[in-house]
C-alpha cells in the first residue's frame, strides 16, 4: 500500500482527535469507526472507568490497537507537526495513563476470555445434558417398544402355535397325534394307528369305546377311560384342555401374565392367592413340580407343613424348583429363571438375617411385617 499520500493542510480537520481536537498522535480506531489519540483514549477510559466511545457511546471490547496505516499517512503529511505533537504529549502523566490503560485492557481481556471459555463450557455442558436427555428418552423409547413387543408376543403367542388355539373340528391327523401324545407317554404307541386310519378332529369327536378298541387297538381299560374322558371334555368345550405352560398361557393370557408378574414381585402373596382361589388349576400343579419329592399320601402333609415353610421363607426357591422341572422343554429360559431365583433366595436369606439380628423399633416392626407378607 502506498503510504506517501499527502493530505492538504487545509483538510487536516479530518485528522483531528475527537477528544483533544488536535492532530492525532498514535491514532487508535475503535470498532465503531471513531479514532482518538491513544493517550486521550487512555485518559478517558481510566478516569471514567467505562469502555465506551466518547463520541457515539458504543461499547468496545478487547485491547484497541494503533492504526498503523493512518499513523504513517499523518507522518508523511505533517512530519514536522507530528514530531512536535509527539514531544508535546510525551509527559509523565500521559505515560501513567497509558500504562494503566494497558493494564486495564489486559485484565479485562483476560476476564472476557475466561467468560468466553466459561460460556463455551456451559454451552458444552448444556449440550451434553441435552444430548444425554435425548439419549435417555431414545433409550427409554426403545425399551418401551421392546417391552410392548414382548407383551404382545406373549399374549398373542407370536411364533408359537398350540392346539388350544385351533378348534378340534379343524384338526388334521398330525394334530390328533400331537394331542394323544400330551395325554402321556403311553399315547405315543397309538400314533401309527391314528395315521393309518386317517383320524382327524371331526372323527375324533364322534369316536365311541368300540371305535377306540377296534381302530386304535387300545386294550388297556384305564387308557380307554382317560382317552374317552378327554374326548367328552372336548365335545363340551369345542377345544382341548391346556396340559402344558404354552397352552395354559394361550387359554388365559391376561391371567397368566398377571400371575407371572406376581411370582416375580410378590411371590408369597401370589402363592397364597393361588392356594385360596386357584387351588386345582395353579397351586396344585405348581407344587407338584416345585416339590416333586412329595407324592401320593405325602402330598397333604407337604401342603400343610413343609410347603408352608418354603412359601413363608423361601418362595423363590419354589419358583426355581418349578422352573428346573421344565429344563428339557425350555432349556435357556428355565436356567435363566433358576439363576435369578438363586440370587433372589440369597437376598431373602440375608435380609431375614439382618431383620432378626437388629434391634427392632415399632417402625421397623411395621416395615418388616409388610416385607414378610410380600
Describe the structure concisely for a colleague.
The chain has 374 residues and is mainly alpha-helical. The chain has 17 helices and two strands.
What does this protein structure show overall?
This protein is mostly helical and 374 residues long. It has 17 helices and 2 strands. The protein has helices at residues 38-48, 68-77, 79-89, 92-156, 173-182, 191-196, 201-205, 209-215, 221-237, 245-251, 253-265, 267-277, 279-290, 298-313, 315-324, 331-357, 362-373, and strands at 27-29, 35-37. The protein has a two-stranded antiparallel ribbon. Helix 2 (68-77) crosses helix 3 (79-89) and helix 11 crosses helix 12 (267-277).
Give the mean pLDDT: 76
Q: In terms of structural class, how would the helical and strand content be classed?
A: mainly alpha
Q: Which band does the percent of strand residues land in?
A: under 5%
Unreliable stretches covering 5 or more consecutive residues: 1-11, 295-303
Number of helices: 17
Largest sheet: 2 strands, antiparallel
Fraction of residues in helix? 55-70%
Question: What integer value in Å does the Rg equal?
Answer: 47 Å
Number of strands: 2
Shape: rod-shaped
